[in-house]
Design goal:
The protein is mainly alpha-helical. Helix content is about 65%, strand content about 0%. It has 2 helices and no strands.
Length: about 55
């Protein structure tokens, strides 16, 4: 936990208020979780997808 606190304090959001820091980190975490869930859905259902390009 000390490493994470050090990284946050040395980053661009280190000087912001505690509430704004938590908001920024929660938005970032939600984006990462959404991307991970989308990757898992693509891996699980990727075999049944059909792509067609309009060439």
């Amino acid at each position: 936990m000390d490493v994470i606190n050090e990284i946050i304090s040395q980053s661009a959001i280190g000087s912001l208020s505690k509430g704004l820091k938590s908001l920024i980190l929660s938005v970032f975490s939600s984006i990462v979780i959404t991307l991970f869930v989308m990757l898992l859905a693509l891996i699980i259902n990727g075999g049944s997808l059909h792509f067609s390009f309009g060439y």
